[in-house]
Design a protein that fits this description.
heterotrimer, A: ABC transporter involved in vitamin B12 uptake, BtuC, 2 strands, 3% strand, B: two-stranded antiparallel ribbon, 77% helix
């Protein structure tokens, strides 16, 4: 029932899957991890982006990754608007932003779900591309190309975002605003503009993430629910706001999921990320490598 | 205060009398099917408000408690054929224990971490139930309604009246909490936990109490649902829609007063019943989401807040 | 430890009256940073105790250890002869330790009166909680003493800075404290307001409430305190009569240095 071969398979697909999980969590690592925005709608935005990619692929035959790039600017603007709305209605008013802020994003997530159902139906949708459906055979294993594509793109995305945050002026400003908003204000920068920009980046990344999501497996409008567990698990475990930490913990999650799946079967799959998340939260509410508040 | 108490209990008795009269006078089953759901949401919303409204801990795990209530009933019915009263009482006990466990596990978490943890709990429990063959697993389980008890001629009418009793119980508890030192303590810790603690409020114990009460009521409200539908399956018993509906009802009604969740539950519950029948269940979720967003943005204190504001504007004198 | 033979008269009186609060060998670390380093001090009943020191010297950390917001690893806190090191804040409050906050932390959704009711409900004297009428009387008498009687039914969100400071002291009083820790209750107030709050604290001390006052306004500290302690980098660098502490070169250096 359980063999070394299977374990090897599980490990390899776990690592590949993990990189993919990192790619879909990066945006949340920015918005929730760095900016403290309780963005529970992140997975819904992700699925929405997938449907954008599906639409372009289905209607015009655009390659899913290219489609992801094409919708990136739209998602960026969407993020700018969403943060402005959140800021004006919650952060600015200050007290009690927590309760209502979370409810706000949850409401948004629900609206997106339903709009997707009304537009595309409840059925699963998938994209077509030359690299989907084929597999690479090596050392007795069969690795689907779509996972390899996801792996390569996810790794690239993580590196790009890490570079952006550490090398560019705006990236450094984003990290500064997460550390000390007042200091930044004293230096003459507008922290709200920077946070808005950062939130825009966090949704813009979803163009590519969403493309990967629908490349890896078909999507349906309520898929975001299982990704609440995965993305928050990855981000919280990583210690809020760390991009490299995000990659590491995403791989851990991917491997654990793959191993549990092999050993106990698919019916336990939905609970894995949530159980890990619960564990992390119970032991260390600030995350494994948590930043101190 | 005392006069308010008398008025309240007279109102409660009138409500129960009316509910009972309905079961004796109306032959058509449909009103009971519809009203049962609304009553169930009232209990859930009030229960949610004890923790979410008074203490400020946003629980997204309503569906976890509801589902556990459903499956406690299913398990007891299947294994020993327990009567409805036992199912509900047992569900309340299980809910209280679960609330206590949730509290111990999560109440040191702040804000969104607590909320996320409650979602996580829901999915974990749902998955466990899905893998539990005895109660039907993923496919679900059929429930055969037994004959109704004495004065009732149909089982649904009886369930309707039982749920009406739960409503009165829930309202009485929530009203008591609001008007007592418990409510004041919860409000204080909602405003500022450290300041509350330094003013003598045992914050952890009060939060645990709120979790226990809220959990017991939610599970109790869920227990009759299996019999109501004559069927239970994990994905509908643990559906996140319950969490969001109940949260929306409380926030839209207003969380600062016990009447808020009732107003919200009646308003949204009735709208849902109407829309599900006339248009579609998708549109009804859409409206739920839109109303939730509109209210948290535009009227953060809910309908209760709007009423208070209107009163305050008319003549500064507000009691 | 002094042997009984060589006790001074002053030490004899303190022997007769055991300390209300005893902090011994208290150390508090945050990660690698030592906020309090082996601090020991006794506060006598009825004493007006001034606590000074530059920013980041550990004053607020010390208060948090006294009120229970922080747990301390090495070191003990004894209050009225009882070891309270492991007690949570609300129990300490009920034992008689009350505090105000550097940045006021009112219960914002409540009126001034309701803020006080929290204290009365949870830490007030049992005989007063029994009847609602007595509770209201106690509350109004505290508010009158604090000069806030007219604000009883005003939301705390509408109070001015000085009113917030007074409200915090009033709320602390509602818990019937034996020891009141006032954390910069005068910060950001005008000169006349400083005098007002100082007079209030003096009147509380006259009613036999022991007070630890943390303050940056030196005239206030000098006027108020029987004894002053100066912290720097988590260590006590001077303790004694106000004039002596002020004259201490290390204290002067610490203050000029910032």
């Amino acid at each position: 029932m359980f063999s070394l071969d299977l374990l090897q398979d599980a490990l390899v697909s776990g690592v590949l899957l993990g990189c993919f999980y990192a790619a879909v969590s990066l945006g949340l690592s920015l918005s929730f991890g760095l900016l403290d925005v309780p963005n529970v709608a992140h997975p819904a935005f992700l699925v929405m982006a997938s449907y954008g990619v599906f639409y372009l692929n289905d209607k015009f035959g655009v390659d899913p990754l290219l489609a992801g790039l094409l919708i990136t600017p739209l998602l960026f603007v969407f993020g700018l608007v969403a943060y402005r709305l959140y800021y004006e209605t919650f952060e600015k008013r200050g007290s009690d932003a927590g309760v209502r802020g979370i409810a706000f994003f949850f409401g948004i997530a629900f609206i997106i779900e339903v709009l997707l159902i009304l537009q595309f139906g409840v059925d699963q949708q998938s994209v077509t591309a030359s690299y989907i459906g084929k597999a690479w055979r090596i050392a007795g294993m069969r690795i689907p190309y779509r996972l390899l594509v996801a792996f390569a793109v996810a790794a690239g995305l993580t590196i790009l975002l890490t570079l952006y945050l550490s090398k560019t002026f705006m990236g450094r400003a984003i990290r500064a605003v997460a550390q000390d908003q007042e200091a930044l204000r004293l230096m003459g920068a507008d922290p709200i503009r920077i946070k808005q920009w950062a939130f825009g980046i966090s949704t813009a990344v979803l163009g590519i993430s969403g493309a990967l999501l629908i490349i890896v497996a078909p999507v349906n409008p309520t898929l975001d629910r299982s990704y609440i567990g995965r993305t928050f698990c990855v981000v919280v475990m990583a210690g809020l706001g760390s991009m490299s930490g995000t990659l590491v913990t995403a791989i851990i999650l991917g491997v654990v999921e793959a191993v549990v799946l092999t050993m106990f079967g698919a019916s336990w799959a939905p609970a894995i990320s949530f159980a890990m998340l619960l564990g992390v939260l119970a032991v260390r509410p600030q995350g494994l490598f948590g930043r101190r508040s | 205060m005392n006069r308010g108490g008398t008025t309240f209990w007279i109102g409660a008795i009138l409500f129960l009398a009316a509910a009972f009269a309905m079961t004796q006078l109306i032959g058509n089953q449909y009103p009971f099917f519809a009203c049962y759901v609304i009553l169930q949401f009232i209990v859930l919303a009030i229960a949610w408000n004890v923790l979410g409204g008074y203490a400020g801990y946003v629980n997204f795990g309503t569906s976890a408690f509801f589902g556990v209530g459903v499956y406690t009933a299913v398990f007891l019915f299947k294994s020993i054929g327990a009567p409805l009263v036992v199912q509900i009482a047992a569900a309340a006990i299980v809910g209280a224990l679960m609330g206590f466990a949730l509290g111990l596990l999560t109440l040191r978490m702040q804000g969104i971490f607590f909320s996320i943890a409650t979602i996580a709990l829901t999915i974990v429990i749902e998955t466990a139930i899905t893998n539990w063959r005895y109660v039907g697993g993923a496919a679900g389980i059929q429930m055969q309604q037994p004959a109704p008890m004495a004065p009732f001629t149909s089982y649904v009418q009886m369930l309707f009246f039982v749920q009406a009793l739960l409503v009165v119980l829930a309202v009485a508890i929530s009203r008591y909490i609001q008007n007592s030192w418990i409510g004041r303590g919860l409000q204080a810790l909602k405003d500022d936990e450290l300041a509350a603690e330094c003013t003598g409020v045992p914050t952890l114990r009060l939060k645990l109490l709120a979790c226990v009460i809220s959990g017991a009521l939610m599970c109790a409200a869920g227990a009759p649902a299996a019999m109501y539908l004559q069927y239970a399956d994990p994905s509908s018993a643990f559906n996140l829609n319950y969490s969001v509906s109940v949260l929306a009802m409380s926030l839209i009604g207003g969380t600062a007063h016990w009447a808020g969740p009732i107003i919200g539950a009646i308003l949204l519950g009735a709208t849902q019943q109407l829309l599900t029948v006339t248009i579609s269940s998708e549109v009804n979720v859409l409206i739920l989401g839109v109303m939730l967003v509109l209210f948290v943005v535009g009227a953060p204190e809910g309908i209760i807040g709007l009423i208070r504001k209107a009163r305050g504007n008319r003549g500064e004198g507000e009691a | 430890m002094m042997s009984p033979e060589i006790q001074t008269p002053e030490a004899k009186t303190s022997e007769a009256q055991p300390p209300l609060l005893r902090i011994s060998a208290l150390t508090k670390k945050f990660g690698g940073f030592t906020a309090l380093d082996n601090v020991s001090v006794d506060i006598r009943p009825g004493e007006r105790f001034g606590l000074i020191g530059p920013n980041g010297s550990g004053k607020t950390t010390l208060i948090n250890c006294i009120s229970g917001a922080f747990r301390t690893e090495p070191g003990t806190v004894t209050f009225g002869g009882e070891d309270i090191t492991r007690l949570p804040p609300h129990i300490r409050t009920r034992r008689g330790i009350a505090r105000s906050f550097q940045i006021p932390r009112p219960f914002r959704s409540m009126t001034v009166a309701e803020n006080l009711m929290v204290g009365l409900d949870f830490a007030g004297r049992a005989d007063e909680v029994v009847s609602a009428g007595r509770e209201r009387d106690t509350m109004m008498s505290i508010l009158t003493r604090m000069g806030l009687a007219s604000k009883a039914d005003v939301s705390t969100a509408k109070l001015s800075q000085v009113e917030l400071r007074k409200m915090e002291l009033a709320r602390a009083l509602a818990t019937h404290p034996k020891l009141l820790v006032s954390d910069e209750a005068m910060a950001g107030l005008s000169n006349s307001e400083v005098d007002e709050v100082l007079d209030l604290l003096m009147s509380l001390a006259a009613q036999n409430i022991t007070i630890i006052m943390i303050e940056h306004i030196m005239q206030a500290v000098m006027r108020f305190s029987d004894r002053v302690m100066c912290l720097e980098a988590g260590k006590i660098i001077a303790i004694g009569k106000p004039e002596e502490v002020m004259a201490n070169p290390r204290v002067q250096e610490a203050y000029l240095g910032t």
